[in-house]
Amino acid sequence: MNKDVIIMEYPAKPEYLLSLRLVTSSITSRLGLDIEQIEDTKIAVSEACTMVMQHFTEDVLAGSVIGVLSVVIYCRFFQKKIEGTLGEKGLTDLWKK
After folding, report:
1. Which residues contact 8 (CB under 8 A, 6 or more apart)?
2. CA 44, CA 91: separation in Å to the nearest integer?
3. Is residue 29 part of a domain?
4. Where are the beta strands (DSSP E) in the chain?
5. pLDDT the model gives residue 95
6. Number of structural domains in the chain
7. Is residue 63 a part of any domain in this protein?
8. How many CB atoms lie under 10 A from the CB of residue 12?
9. Is residue 97 part of a domain?
10. Is 10 helix (H, G, I), strand (E, B) or coil?
11. Residue 38 and residue 28: Cα distance in Å, rounded?
């Protein structure tokens, strides 16, 4: 998986965290990480996604975003490291003044 790129998009709902953790486990296992590193990575990704979901929910409640759409994860894999970006994707209310 040298210099491979994976982009994942999940609905911004807690019930999808398990799927995300399983995908994370599978990918990190293929990279040759040990069990402790895999678990640490799963926890970090899960916590980051939870924070994005909470922020996204606050934006929806504040009216700056319409609807709950998705969490987007972009990962680049190198020989000895993983580089990732996590973000949210929603519809901005362009008509509010």
Report:
1. 20, 23, 72, 73, 75
2. 27
3. yes
4. 5-11, 65-77, 82-92
5. 41
6. 1
7. yes
8. 24
9. no
10. strand
11. 6
Query: Given phi > 0 = left and psi -120 to 50 = alpha, else beta, which region is 3?
Result: left
Whether residue 52 contacts residue 85, with contact meaning beta carbons closer than 8 Å, is answered with no
Cβ-based burial of 26 (10 A; exposed 0-12, middle 13-18, buried ≥19)? exposed
| Total-model pTM | 0.70
Q: Which pLDDT belongs to residue 92?
A: 52
Report yes or no on 83 lying in a domain: yes
pLDDT tens digits, one per residue of 10-29: 887 788 889 988 988 998 88
Which residues neighbour 89 within 8 Å (Cβ) at sequence distance 6 or greater? Answer: 9, 69, 70, 71, 72
Q: Which domain holds residue 9?
A: 5-92
Query: Tokens 């996204």 correspond to what residue?
Result: 56
Residues of the chain with pLDDT under 70: 1-2, 56-68, 80, 90-97
